[in-house]
UniProtKB/TrEMBL annotation:
PANTHER family: SHORT-CHAIN DEHYDROGENASE REDUCTASE, SHORT-CHAIN DEHYDROGENASE_REDUCTASE FAMILY PROTEIN. Coiled coil: none annotated. This is Uncharacterized protein. It comes from the Eukaryota.
Amino acid sequence: MSALLQGTAFVTGAGSGIGQATALCMAQHGVKRFALGDIDLKKLDETKNALESQSSDVDILLIKLDVSNEDSVKEAVEKAAAKFGRIDYAVNNAGISGPVARTESVAFSEWQHLMSVNLNGVWLCQRSEILQMLKQDPHSTG
Ligand SMILES: NC(=O)c1ccc[n+]([C@@H]2O[C@H](COP(=O)([O-])OP(=O)(O)OC[C@H]3O[C@@H](n4cnc5c(N)ncnc54)[C@H](O)[C@@H]3O)[C@@H](O)[C@H]2O)c1
């Protein structure tokens, strides 16, 4: 098992698909501390179980998070920093598919929701993560 990656990972949309696969892959490459966020806590439990089955020495914080909500994102990053003291890797993966329909039949509220999760969500997460990272000393690989 390689230890290419060291430090703490913060992954959104970690309850399934690409987010879950990314967490599992990061653990295979050395990450041991995970702050995993998702709007669906039940799905996050599945990721936690999968990670723990794969690696016995991982420390995992599960966070219910709505990436489209500024306060929820801020709280999630604060929780991760309170537990692990730092965030070294940020994977802003949470997202949704849009309505598969002709433009004229899509409600503006559906479009706004899509933008809110997929665009605002990434921006809100990276802003909070960067604010946290700027407070940290550089990660030592020694
Ligand atoms: N799978 C693909 O082929 C593909 C292609 C292009 C882009 N993407 C994008 O990659 C990302 C992951 O895709 P996936 O296939 O793993 O999707 P997925 O649906 O399996 O996983 C997305 C996760 O995000 C979570 N989520 C949804 N809304 C959220 C919110 N508001 N706050 C926090 N968590 C939320 C879901 O609960 C889910 O666990 C998405 O943004 C998707 O749009 C995927």
